[in-house]
Protein 1
Amino acid sequence: MAKIPTEIPSLKLNDGTSIPILGYGTGTAWYKSGDDGSIDRKVVEGVKSAIKLGYYHLDGAEVYNTERELGIAIKESKVPRERLYVTTKVLPNIKDIPKAIDMSLEKLQMDYVDLYLIHAPFFASSERELQSAWAAMESVRKSGKARSIGVSNYLEKDLAATLATAAVPPSINQIEYHPYLQHGNLLEYQTTQTIAASAYGALTAVTKAKPGPVDDVMGQLAKKYYVSEGEIALRWVMDQGVVAITTSGKEERLSDYLRAMTFSLTPREVKEISDAGAEKHFRGFWQAKFDNNDRS
């Protein structure tokens, strides 16, 4: 396995900060069902491997129950804090966001995170609840405990409700995004509001949603660029100006994903994948919150 000598470029957010366009997630591959205070060294070593390869954008969440491991891995990596971009998210403790960020920072062994997200809008039964939570997020940003604030899994209606009373708009909305879940006009709406997008589940079309209508075009492009279909899937996301979050417990696979930094798809190729993906619908996360044919 050779380390691919390439840097991960960044995307500028509406608050003036910048986020690396490829990040390493500590959820799917490393998710822990409970937090009893014990440390999973496999998670620690996995994160350290990612950092060693050059994944300085690290994506966590309180619900993953891996914030302690993420903090230990960062300490043991010896990489200066200011070189890293650390994200975490609030959901279980959404009713007390100021307390939630303090708990996360304690576990992470940090004074601040680069990005703090509301993990999902499903806690709210009214627009007022969304707006109240966002006001609490704004206070976290003002305190300096988060340099940027944003949301995750929000639809257009959730963003519109939040923006109606926001003093500071969300900097980003992290969503499940891949060729089989393109969310209609959501990304276009976010562009009009200068809210960036971040994608989790970017590899879905070439992993758990196979077989499907994008298989042929993904395969052809993989041969053209001498990469795997996984790198094509990541490139499809990033070539639309969307941040990609990926994960793996295998160092070799993470190294391979960095090849996505060495080429770009043409606009026509991006469209070919999008058009083929529109022929199928597949949602890998939060299925219980949506009807089977709901593509929003």
Note: The longest strand covers residues 146-152.
Protein 2
Amino acid sequence: MLTESFILSTRSLEKRTNTSTAKDLGIHLHEYQPNPSLRSSFKKSSIKPNCLAVNATHIFAAQADKSVVHVYSRERNNQEAVVPFQEQITCLALAGAYDDAGTLVMGTHVGRLILWEHSLDDASQPLPLSPLRTLTNHRAGINAVIFGHSNGKANFAISAAQDKTCIVWDHAKGTVLHTYLLSDSPLCLALDPADRATYAGYEDGSIQLLDWYKQHSQIHPHYDPSQQCTPTQPPSSDRWRFQGYSSPALCLQVSYDGTALLSGHESGKVHRWHIAKGKYSDQVADITLPVTNLHMLPPTGFPNAPIPSIKLHNIVKPRYESSLDSSRSNSIVPSNYTFTAQFTSTLPLSDPPTQYFELDDALTHPSFPTPMLDEGLAELAALNTRDAHASSDEYIALKQANDSLKIQLDDALHGQREAIAKALKLQEARFQRGEDDAVKRARKKRRRIRVMEAEERRRKIIMGEAVDAPDGSGDGDVRMCEAGEELSSDTDEMSSD
């Protein structure tokens, strides 16, 4: 049975109220379907928005107002490590696939990025690189940025800012694809799994739908030149509201099948919205603390699901070394690089080669040996010379074979034409015989009719009845002509007595 779950994080309040929720619980694993319920919790975390990252084995949580990252093991369901850094982490994300070890990318409060590979005991200092490009169409602070699901050059980015705009970017070229004018400042964004729509959360807890395909276009609306320059204001009917007031929506996530939207609110509630109906559905969870992050996990339970080749059971705490350390020289790979992981299956062993080939050995070197190149060029020259001498004889033989095939083809075509002509002649003869038989039967019928008419006239003469002469003539002779054809006396002509 397929199981879909999500992970949420909360932020502790400065002044706690008496609630049933434990004070030190900050991360919760909920089963979304088929049996919605709380599965597990992780303690000692207070997390701001955009400060939670999840993969198949671990959870990474940057603590609010602190310079530490808490690491939790999903297999052992406990806190595995507390990793301190020199700067406060304001956001983080995982680079790589969900099942891979990946690299944790962390942004600091001074605008720098820190890269940490989980199986490597090193945290790389920011490299002296400048931004590729800067996108500056917003006129106020940016609240949320998300990327599309494509891996190609056609991927895009979406940003939402306090100036009540949502902009779709071609981040590879640095151009604006489309601009949406919103009624309020969005606090968070979520993207449809098939990149068909965007969802924005507002301060009053309502949800704004940005349907990309509502405007009919023969191409993708974001790449239609006639629509790129004209901002779009979504209709009020695409804004989903509660019956009453709700707290601000701090985070959004779309279910795996794209039929439901989950929203985490400052009140600690997680609500579900029915996307097809465009309205509020029900409440999924109530944590009583502000829900700052939502992560929808990939469904589990697929038959024959692929198993990752390696598995990381324990992360290695990074050493935050200085970029001036001479032991690292100028390479981005440290000299004491170690990789700690477990193979999930037996490694495939290739069969030893049964025969040694010099070329196989040469392929492992930076370049081919000079004697091998000279030998290859010599063999190629000899092959060309031999082909030049043999070309004339091969051409003659080929031409003779071609002429023979042509003669055979002409003979076959001639025989086919003769067979068709013979069949047509036979068909014509059968048709002519049928026509002649039909004419003979018609003539016999006409003769019988004339005999009957003659017998009827004789009977009338014997009985003394008046007899009309055929065709107005009184000689009693009958001569008939049908269809402009005059019948001969020996076949069709009858005389009266």
Note: The radius of gyration is 46 Å.
Protein 3
Amino acid sequence: MDSSLTCAAIDRDLNSVIMDYLISEGYPSAAQRFASEANIQPTSAVDSIQERVEIREAIYAGDIQTAIERINELNPILLEKDNALHFALLRLQLVELIRHCQTDSNDNVTPALDFATQQLAPRAPTNRQFIEDLEQTMALLIFKPQDLPPQLAALLKPELRKDVAQRVNEALLFEQGERTKAKLFDLVHLRGWSEMKAREAKKDLPEHIGLGLEKERNGHGNGAMYSNGEGEAMVA
């Protein structure tokens, strides 16, 4: 087989994987720039991911009400069908209300209590996990922020926002008929599994096998996989 054809096929496959990642994870600027640099035709999905980006950014900012409204605009039945996702969003909204009342000089917990009573309490009995999540969240009101046990303090960390945002992104992708996770993650997992099996078979392997991304991280190369063009890191 002609080596030039083989290289072209590999480049094409790699470009497809990268574009799939940028679209799935919601980086429209990087996707458009990569399509231009790689001289490939951007898919129609590039134009449709901005809505998911705005929903993700609203969740990252703690503006859960806006995120819910945008989700309903994009897919009016999603939260009706996915009770677990809807409850996760409402619970996160309660966390944000509690966070606000803890930093408010008046220390007014009434908005948080009213929201829990009206939005979460009626839904909690339908699922045992909902009850546990609501009880854990309400426990935030018992302690001062500096005295929270680690399990409760974790609710106020950015990771909860990121987790909910990822679940929302995957649900929207599924409803749009797209992959819920980028192919790149599957390849990384497959590579890790292959290395593990090779080591179990006592194959002669270096102690550490990198992913071959060090050059890009050190600033050599176009860096398309490390920035979305707006200063956001994309691959750790």
Note: Residues 3 and 54 are 44 Å apart (CA to CA).
